[in-house]
Structures are given as structure tokens and as C-alpha cells.
Write a structure and sequence with these properties.
Length: about 325
């Protein structure tokens, strides 16, 4: 048990450190081109902070623990919206740009609905994975087009020092971050699966709880820090919404394709967890459109729902 816990904690620490390197250096490289904080968050940062989920998903699929990968994606999206966005709004109301309401929110909702439809027969096939990848690629292409039209990022802020580094060093640190994420995913998956066996819990439950919260740590830190500092939260907000789309489309999609055979989706995940994920995305529509912001009351409600869901999950499935 001690060895498994140590492996899980080591893997989690490596994932956070690797994601931090990828996000910082990727953001700095993007800033050289000159794009808005929101677009950087939706693309570079979102893909960077989603890499732990991708590494864990492919590793778990190859080890025959695909349930961990599915649970991780669904659980991570619930953490992103209910817990992280809810906490951010609870601290300080979150305002949304018109573009977020017109594009990002509908795409996030569409990704959740698409996954539910594809998984409705109880499994995800390679063809389903291709459809998810196509959806994600289309969204990424839209982000690239909008990035070219976006205003140049203002100079200043925490990444000034990073942008001052030579481009070659930034690329090297980016590659190092990717390597740390890949190795860390091996430790985290091995530790999580071992603990699941000891507790008698399924891989899916561990993915929905421990692994989901752990791999959401980069998004949690980015969002809460920017909220507490009271600065521009566009990058953090774009990161949350973008990650929610990429997790389903460009993370779970390749994971399903890489898995040997079809990926089974447990009945309880279909009956509750995926339904809650879709319902959360749909609830965001009226919540976000109310004065174009998420209020403290709405944020508190999001957090309360997540706490109740997690409590119920632990009490009934462990």
C-alpha cells in the first residue's frame, strides 16, 4: 500500500511539474507570435494542461485499464466546471466575453453530448475515437483562425522573463516537460490501479476521483491563482473551457483509437457520471448568459453539487 501511494504521489508531482513546464514555455512561445490571453488559454495552455490526461489515457489503455481512462476524462471535466470554475466564481464572480458565449460554450456542450451519444451502446470503438478526433481538430482549427485575428498580447505579466529566454531553450524545456509527463503518467497509473485493487474499487471510480482531481491540478492552480490575484482571468477561463473540449475530443479520442479492441463504458458511468457531465454543460448555458457572468451564488451551487456527487460516489462505489 505504501509503495503504491508513493508511486501515485510521485507520478502526480511529475505530472504537475511537467504540465507547468509545458504551459509556461508553450505560452511564452505563443506570446512571441502575439495572440490574446483568451486564445492562448484555449489553445496552448489547454493542450498543455490536458497532456497528463492523454498520457494517462494511452498508458491505461495499453495496460488494459481503459475504464480508468474513461473515468479520468469524465471526472476531470466535472472537476473543471463544477469544482474549479465554481470555486473561482465563489471567490470572485466570473465575467464572460461574448466570444466565449457564442463559440466556446456551445462547443463544450456539443463535445459532452457527442461523447454520450457515442458511448450510449456501452462501448467506444476506434470509429468513435476518430469522430471525437475530427470534432477536436475542427475546434482547434477554429481556434487557430481566431488566434490570427486576435489582438496582440500586451507586454508584461508573469511570462515576461520566459519570453526573454532564447527560443531554443524554450523548445528544450517544452520537450523536457513532455518527457516528465509521460514518465509521471506511468507512475500515477500503476499506483492508482494498485490502490484500486487494495480498496476493492474499480478503475473507473479511481479515475473519477483521485486521478481526475490530480490531473486537474494544473487547471486548478492556474485558475485560483489568477482569481486571488485579481488580474485578467481570460487565460485561466479559456484554459478551463478549452481543456473540457480537448479532454473529450483530442484526449479520449486518441486513447480509444490506441486501445486494443473496443473500450467498454460501465453502465453506472452511463447512468450517472456522463449524464451529470452533460447536464453540467447544459446548465452552464443559462448560468453563463445571466448577465454574462457566473455569480458567487451560482459558483457556490456548482461546488456544492460536486461535493455531493463525490460523497455519493465514495459511499456507494467503494
Amino acid at each position: 500500500m505504501a509503495t503504491s501511494a508513493a508511486a501515485l504521489l510521485l507520478g502526480l508531482a511529475m505530472l504537475i511539474a511537467g504540465a507547468d513546464l509545458v504551459v509556461r514555455q508553450g505560452t511564452a512561445l505563443a506570446a512571441r507570435v502575439g495572440v490574446s490571453p483568451l486564445v492562448v488559454g484555449m489553445t496552448v495552455v489547454s493542450l498543455g494542461t490536458s497532456l497528463p490526461e492523454l498520457a494517462i489515457g494511452i498508458t491505461a489503455a495499453h495496460q488494459g485499464n481503459a475504464g480508468l481512462a474513461v473515468g479520468n476524462i469524465v471526472g476531470t471535466n466535472l472537476v473543471n466546471v463544477l469544482l474549479i470554475l465554481g470555486l473561482s466564481a465563489l471567490i470572485r464572480p466570473v465575467s464572460f466575453e461574448p466570444r466565449t458565449l457564442r463559440v466556446d460554450l456551445p462547443v463544450m456542450t456539443g463535445a459532452a453530448v457527442l461523447l454520450l451519444v457515442l458511448a450510449f451502446d456501452g462501448s467506444l470503438t476506434s470509429t468513435d475515437g476518430v469522430w471525437l478526433c475530427v470534432y477536436g481538430a475542427a475546434y482547434l482549427a477554429l481556434m487557430v483562425v481566431q488566434a490570427k485575428r486576435a489582438p496582440v498580447t500586451a507586454e508584461g505579466g508573469p511570462n515576461v522573463g520566459a519570453r526573454a529566454r532564447p527560443a531554443a531553450l524554450q523548445v528544450a524545456l517544452l520537450v523536457l516537460g513532455l518527457a516528465v509527463i509521460v514518465v509521471g503518467s506511468e507512475f500515477l497509473v500503476d499506483g492508482a490501479v494498485s490502490i484500486a485493487r487494495i480498496w476493492g474499487a474499480s478503475d473507473t471510480v479511481i479515475g473519477l476521483t483521485v486521478v481526475a482531481i490530480g490531473t486537474s491540478a494544473p487547471e486548478l492552480v492556474t485558475t485560483i491563482v489568477s482569481t486571488v490575484r485579481g488580474g485578467d482571468r481570460s487565460l485561466a477561463l479559456g484554459n478551463l473551457l478549452g481543456s473540457s473540449v480537448f479532454n473529450i475530443a483530442l484526449i479520449l479520442g486518441p486513447t480509444v483509437i490506441a486501445a486494443p479492441g473496443t473500450v467498454p463504458v460501465p453502465d453506472d458511468v452511463l447512468a450517472l457520471d456522463m449524464i451529470l457531465m452533460v447536464a453540467t454543460a447544459l446548465v452552464c448555458v443559462p448560468a453563463f448568459f445571466t448577465r454574462r457572468q457566473l455569480t458567487r451564488g451560482e459558483g457556490g451551487a456548482f461546488v456544492a453539487v460536486y461535493v455531493l456527487y463525490t460523497t455519493w460516489l465514495i459511499m456507494t462505489r467503494l
